[in-house]
Amino acid sequence: MSADGTGKRFRMGKPYRLIINDDGGRGYWNWVAPLTADQYLDALFKPQIEGKPVDALFWCGLQNPSGTANYNTRAGEVRGSRFPLFETVGEWALATTLRGMIAQGQDPLTLICDRGHALGKDVWLSFRFNDHHHVRTKRQNSKSSQLYEDR
Questions:
Q1: Tens digits of residue pLDDT in 8-66
Q2: What angle do CA 93, 88, 64 make, to 5 degrees?
Q3: Whole-number Å distance between alpha carbons of 81 and 94
Q4: pTM value?
Q5: What's the sign of the alpha-carbon dihedral 19, 23, 25, 26?
Q6: SS (H, E, C) the chain
Protein backbone atom coordinates (compact mmCIF):
# COMPACT_ATOMS: atom_id res chain seq x y z
CA MET A 1 0.00 0.00 0.00
CA SER A 2 1.29 3.43 -0.83
CA ALA A 3 1.64 6.38 1.49
CA ASP A 4 -1.23 8.23 -0.20
CA GLY A 5 -3.78 5.42 0.29
CA THR A 6 -4.55 4.94 -3.44
CA GLY A 7 -2.79 1.61 -3.76
CA LYS A 8 -0.35 3.04 -6.30
CA ARG A 9 3.29 2.16 -5.84
CA PHE A 10 5.90 4.88 -5.93
CA ARG A 11 9.60 4.33 -6.51
CA MET A 12 10.52 6.56 -3.60
CA GLY A 13 7.80 5.27 -1.30
CA LYS A 14 5.54 8.30 -1.66
CA PRO A 15 4.55 10.87 -4.27
CA TYR A 16 6.23 14.26 -4.21
CA ARG A 17 4.25 17.40 -4.96
CA LEU A 18 7.35 19.28 -6.01
CA ILE A 19 11.03 18.33 -6.30
CA ILE A 20 13.77 20.94 -6.43
CA ASN A 21 16.86 19.88 -8.36
CA ASP A 22 19.67 22.10 -7.14
CA ASP A 23 23.00 22.04 -8.95
CA GLY A 24 24.92 22.65 -5.74
CA GLY A 25 25.64 26.32 -6.31
CA ARG A 26 22.32 28.13 -6.26
CA GLY A 27 21.86 31.22 -4.13
CA TYR A 28 25.40 31.93 -3.02
CA TRP A 29 25.70 34.81 -5.51
CA ASN A 30 23.70 37.04 -3.18
CA TRP A 31 26.28 36.78 -0.41
CA VAL A 32 29.86 37.95 0.04
CA ALA A 33 32.13 34.92 -0.11
CA PRO A 34 33.28 32.95 1.64
CA LEU A 35 29.92 32.13 3.20
CA THR A 36 29.48 30.66 6.65
CA ALA A 37 27.72 27.32 6.85
CA ASP A 38 24.50 29.04 7.97
CA GLN A 39 24.69 31.56 5.10
CA TYR A 40 25.23 28.75 2.58
CA LEU A 41 22.25 26.81 3.96
CA ASP A 42 20.09 29.95 3.96
CA ALA A 43 21.12 30.67 0.35
CA LEU A 44 20.02 27.18 -0.65
CA PHE A 45 16.86 26.70 1.43
CA LYS A 46 15.22 30.09 2.01
CA PRO A 47 14.49 31.18 -1.58
CA GLN A 48 13.35 27.84 -2.99
CA ILE A 49 12.42 25.35 -0.25
CA GLU A 50 11.48 26.85 3.13
CA GLY A 51 7.75 27.53 3.35
CA LYS A 52 7.19 26.16 -0.18
CA PRO A 53 5.22 23.04 -1.23
CA VAL A 54 8.52 21.28 -1.94
CA ASP A 55 8.69 17.72 -0.65
CA ALA A 56 12.19 16.79 -1.82
CA LEU A 57 15.53 18.34 -2.65
CA PHE A 58 17.81 16.63 -5.14
CA TRP A 59 21.16 18.25 -4.39
CA CYS A 60 23.85 17.84 -7.02
CA GLY A 61 26.94 17.23 -4.94
CA LEU A 62 28.90 15.61 -7.76
CA GLN A 63 29.76 17.84 -10.69
CA ASN A 64 29.76 16.48 -14.21
CA PRO A 65 31.31 13.25 -15.48
CA SER A 66 34.69 14.72 -14.49
CA GLY A 67 33.81 14.06 -10.90
CA THR A 68 34.68 16.64 -8.26
CA ALA A 69 32.48 16.71 -5.17
CA ASN A 70 30.78 19.60 -3.38
CA TYR A 71 31.14 17.78 -0.05
CA ASN A 72 33.87 16.14 2.03
CA THR A 73 34.35 12.95 0.05
CA ARG A 74 36.81 10.28 1.12
CA ALA A 75 36.87 8.64 -2.30
CA GLY A 76 37.39 11.54 -4.67
CA GLU A 77 38.41 15.13 -5.02
CA VAL A 78 36.65 18.09 -3.42
CA ARG A 79 35.75 20.85 -5.86
CA GLY A 80 38.59 23.34 -6.24
CA SER A 81 40.90 21.56 -3.80
CA ARG A 82 43.96 21.74 -6.05
CA PHE A 83 43.43 25.29 -7.26
CA PRO A 84 45.09 28.24 -5.51
CA LEU A 85 43.56 30.59 -8.12
CA PHE A 86 40.35 30.45 -10.15
CA GLU A 87 39.36 31.87 -13.53
CA THR A 88 36.02 33.23 -12.33
CA VAL A 89 34.72 34.83 -9.16
CA GLY A 90 31.86 32.33 -9.15
CA GLU A 91 34.16 29.31 -9.08
CA TRP A 92 36.29 30.92 -6.37
CA ALA A 93 33.26 31.84 -4.24
CA LEU A 94 31.71 28.38 -4.21
CA ALA A 95 34.99 26.45 -3.86
CA THR A 96 36.24 28.75 -1.09
CA THR A 97 32.95 28.45 0.78
CA LEU A 98 32.93 24.64 0.52
CA ARG A 99 36.60 24.32 1.48
CA GLY A 100 36.08 26.67 4.43
CA MET A 101 33.21 24.59 5.79
CA ILE A 102 35.19 21.38 5.39
CA ALA A 103 38.27 22.92 7.07
CA GLN A 104 36.05 23.75 10.06
CA GLY A 105 34.92 20.12 10.28
CA GLN A 106 31.53 20.77 8.67
CA ASP A 107 30.48 18.59 5.76
CA PRO A 108 28.21 20.44 3.29
CA LEU A 109 26.28 17.26 2.40
CA THR A 110 25.57 16.46 6.06
CA LEU A 111 24.53 20.06 6.78
CA ILE A 112 22.17 20.09 3.79
CA CYS A 113 20.60 16.76 4.77
CA ASP A 114 20.17 17.89 8.37
CA ARG A 115 18.55 21.22 7.38
CA GLY A 116 16.26 19.55 4.84
CA HIS A 117 15.15 16.90 7.30
CA ALA A 118 14.55 19.54 10.00
CA LEU A 119 12.19 21.23 7.51
CA GLY A 120 10.41 17.92 6.86
CA LYS A 121 11.89 17.50 3.37
CA ASP A 122 13.52 14.45 1.81
CA VAL A 123 17.05 15.10 0.56
CA TRP A 124 18.75 13.10 -2.16
CA LEU A 125 22.33 13.36 -3.41
CA SER A 126 22.30 13.59 -7.19
CA PHE A 127 24.96 13.27 -9.86
CA ARG A 128 24.91 15.01 -13.23
CA PHE A 129 25.49 12.03 -15.50
CA ASN A 130 24.94 13.57 -18.92
CA ASP A 131 26.18 17.06 -18.21
CA HIS A 132 29.28 17.28 -20.36
CA HIS A 133 29.47 21.00 -21.07
CA HIS A 134 32.72 21.40 -19.10
CA VAL A 135 34.58 18.26 -20.16
CA ARG A 136 35.67 19.41 -23.60
CA THR A 137 37.54 22.44 -22.37
CA LYS A 138 41.31 22.37 -22.70
CA ARG A 139 41.84 24.31 -19.49
CA GLN A 140 41.63 22.81 -16.05
CA ASN A 141 38.63 23.82 -14.00
CA SER A 142 37.45 23.27 -10.46
CA LYS A 143 34.75 20.85 -11.60
CA SER A 144 37.25 18.44 -13.17
CA SER A 145 39.09 15.98 -10.97
CA GLN A 146 42.80 15.26 -11.39
CA LEU A 147 41.82 11.70 -12.31
CA TYR A 148 39.79 13.08 -15.21
CA GLU A 149 42.54 15.48 -16.27
CA ASP A 150 45.11 12.64 -16.35
CA ARG A 151 43.03 10.38 -18.61
A1: 777 677 889 999 998 766 667 778 889 999 999 999 999 999 999 999 999 988 766 55
A2: 80
A3: 11
A4: 0.79
A5: negative
A6: CCCCCCCCCCCCCCCCCCEEEECCCCCHHHCCCCCCHHHHHHHHHCCCCCCCCCCEEEEEEEECCCEEECCCCCCCEECCCCCCCCCCHHHHHHHHHHHHHHHCCCCHHHHHHHHHHHCCCEEEEEECCCCCCCCCCCCCCCCECHHHHCC
